[in-house]
Amino acid sequence: MTSAPEAPVSESTRPHPGTDVFVALALLALDAVVALVAGLWSLIITDYDLFGGDNEGVSLTPVVTTLTVVSVLFLGTALLAGRRKAYVTAVVQGLAGITLLLSAVTWQAESNGDHRRPAPESGYSGPHSACRSGGDSSECLGG
After folding, report:
1. Per-residue pLDDT tens digits for 5-44
2. Cross-strand bridge partners of residue 140
3. Contacts 24+ apart (CB under 8 A), 81-90
């Protein structure tokens, strides 16, 4: 009895483009939920007041650390999708991971920026250095 030869099964085939787009969008929605839950959870454990209270002494480092870990997971998912030749999913996951990472780092930088020393005043001591409002010379102390 003769049998038809079986078609070789290749593990390196690309997924159907529709499937790739669907998986990319589904993972993006899951990424948004995971980032939101992780961000809110880390804000809650740091005693951050979400409703505009006094957050002066609250460190955002745990929040940034949590969001950085989540973004690294997104980038790992992008790497796995790229190895499976799901290029749309890989690009979307990569962009989501990079965006979250840059957002977390920017947020940390901005929160630390509130505590900077004021810029030094100019050393100018010319004839109009003691003027109060910049109006006429009658407002100047020396002239």
Report:
1. 665 545 558 889 899 999 999 999 999 999 999 999 998 8
2. 131
3. 81/23, 84/15, 85/12, 85/13, 85/14, 85/15, 86/14, 86/15, 86/20, 86/23, 86/24, 87/14, 87/20, 88/17, 88/20, 88/21, 88/24, 89/20, 89/23, 89/24, 89/27
3-class DSSP state of 6:
coil
**Whole-prediction pTM value?**
0.66
Name the one residue in this structure whose structure tokens are 């001591």.
125
pLDDT band at 61 (very low <50, low <70, confident <90, very high): confident
Closest CA relative to residue 97, chosen from 76, 125, 128: 76
* More confident: 29 or 52: 29
